[in-house]
Amino acid sequence: MIDKRVKNAKEAIDGIKDGMTLMLGGFGLCGIPENSINALVESDVKDLTCISNNAGVDDFGLGLLLHKRQIKKMISSYVGENAEFERQMLSGELEVELTPQGTLAEKCRAAQAGIPAFYTPAGFGTEVAEGKEVKDFKGKPHILEHAYEADYSIVKAWKGDHAGNLIFKGSARNFNHPMAGAATITIAEVEELVEPGELDPNQIHIPGIMIQRIFQGEKFEKRIEQRTVRKKD
Q1: Which residue segments constitute the domains of the chain, with CATH numbers given?
Q2: Mean pLDDT of the chain
Q3: Taking the model in full, what pTM does it have?
Q4: Could you tell me if residue 221 is left (phi over 0), alpha (psi between -120 and 50 degrees) or otherwise beta?
């Protein structure tokens, strides 16, 4: 068994350089690789292209990288929680590529599976389809979408073992799952790192073959984007 453990987030992101393309897992603020993002902030790496479902919030997640102008281009499907993102986009400081959420997920999964491209009806007739090949299937137009090409994928899991086998929990699985193994190197940040053989093989979501580095994170905040509560009677 190959031991893929590294000491911490700083060691895990070693090799990430200016101008690289990164995939970052999570759904909203759920399941984001907090420790790895913080390490990227401290590293001062810049001109990044980030592929993520969302762009974090102003003072958390990818929002921290945006505040330090470390992201050159953002590829996302939902960006409505970040005022700094909006400011940079409207001012022209940040290049933005908005993608339908299902297409974003499938472009990650296609990269994971080694599929170079696929056709989808999502986005036809909108700006999303501009410049893309169109084909009809059963009388319905579909646009050609290419799988993403990323240098690093950084995912966050609930549990993992030394070999990189991962188990996700709840909604945190959403974009972490298709991004694992979808880049040249995948880093897994886990809440609990266990000994080999402790994970039930029937419960593993991502096999270790897709992971190159794994470490146990610490002090997870697990913030909630929008908290709605009923007023007391």
Answers
A1: 9-216 (3.40.1080.10)
A2: 93
A3: 0.91
A4: alpha
